[in-house]
Amino acid sequence: MSDTRALLAALRRGQPIGAEALTRFVEGLADGSVSDAQAGAFAMGVVLSKLSAEDSVALTRAMRDSGDVLSWDLPAPVIDKHSTGGVGDCVSLLLAPALAACGAFVPMVSGRGLGHTGGTLDKLESIPGFNTALTAPEFQRTVRETGLAIVSASPTLAPADKRLYAIRDVTSTVESLDLITASILSKKLASGLDALVLDVKCGSGAFMKTPQEARALAQSLVSTANAAGCKTSALITDMSAPLVPSLGNALEVAEVMRALTSPAPSRLKEITAALGGQLLADAGMAASLAEGEARLTAALTSGEAAESFARLCRAQGGPLHFVDNWARFLPEANIIREVKAPHTGHIAAYDGEALGLAVVALGGGRQVETDQIDPAVGLSDLLPLGTYVTQGTPIARIHASRESAARAAESAVRAALRIGAAPASQPLILERLT
After folding, report:
1. Beta carbons within 8 Å of 49's beta carbon, 6+ residues apart
2. By residue range, what is the domain housing residue 388?
3. How many domains does the structure of the chain reveal?
4. Catalytic site includes residue 120
């Protein structure tokens, strides 16, 4: 019996597989010697028969090692953050430059929009000239010289994950915690990190809708990453409403620039400080969580994080003076239309996923992989949960390229909104796992 057939037979029987067999299987994914049928059988087997903790770590390590694994010789820790995805989630664009301003090195390998959630790369590419497709030498040089870089994954970074993800997508096995864990961590750990913080979103605008689902994923990620040798913590954070009042690529970049250049507090700054403080403490760059959060907040309020973002923008091809005059450079939609409250009451709830899909329908995301994104479209000025409104009060603005798209988005926003009694207050940070 071949190695792969033996592995599949053990998986079917619910038996441990072992690191050696998993490594050979992952090598076969990367070099093509494992067939699509075998890869699909493996994915379905993992869904039906959960991997042991040891096998989950072994799968993650093998997928990490299936391509290039970066190594760094730098005078400070190499650290990063990953979010499981949510609407209005532009934390990476604020956190990465703030961490660099604190003296860390941040090689951030990011993704594009997925489903109803926006992608960090799509947001950055709304800045004219910004290049996220750096070569490996350019990536390493930019991190060394600038303190950070935000790029797309190269074809040689965890190639087994790319192959297995495509198989999972067509075999209805995407939701497996073991496979999600290996997929997320293989790419992050291949970046050669000393420490990682995970932002696991929970609520209507996230993939994980309940605290139980979010906790299960966070525990899987944290335990696997730490066992694989990377100091990792997770924060479970509220996504019952968009994190910022704008959804859409250029509109979210504008929110980030306001946060970088204004002393005003915000939910975006609160979660950035919490994630960054945890990461600085875990990496030994702060003596405590409180000290880490204070350092992060100081970087944001002093303007040092804004200067770091400016260096990032220049290093990756963006305008030289983007931070000083960002509104001049970001694209604007042809049509801006207000959505008004249908009756009086409090903003009781948003269906965050529906809002995200409304932005996708406007052209701000992809319905198929080949779709072109319109960076200017989206929603802005979305009122916070709990706001009291009277009939006719503007609750959001639609940014669209066509009248028909604007009308459809208006209907979608109204359907995603519930007006009634004021909702109970919800903390932004629901739980920490270390």
Report:
1. 11, 12, 14
2. 332-420
3. 3
4. yes
Reply yes or no on whether 81 is catalytic.
yes
Q: CA 281, 286, 289, 293 torsion: positive or negative?
A: negative
Rounded Cα distance between 311 and 147, Å, is 9
Is there a single domain that holds both residue 299 and residue 200?
A: yes
Q: Is the pTM of this model over 0.90?
A: yes
Indicate if 82 belongs to the active site: yes
Could you tell me whether strands 195-202 and 79-83 are parallel, antiparallel, or unpaired per DSSP bridges? parallel
| Residue among 83, 173, 220, 308 flagged as catalytic | 83
Assigned domain for 433 exists: no
Annotation marks residue 123 as catalytic: no
Q: What is the CATH number of the domain that holds 157?
A: 3.40.1030.10
Q: Is 411 a catalytic residue?
A: no
Annotated catalytic residue: which of 56, 60, 61, 82?
82
Confirm whether 188 is a catalytic residue: yes
239-288 per-position pLDDT tens digit:
999 999 999 999 999 999 999 999 999 999 999 999 999 999 999 999 99
Q: Annotated catalytic residue: which of 112, 188, 215, 311?
A: 188
Catalytic residue check, 209: no
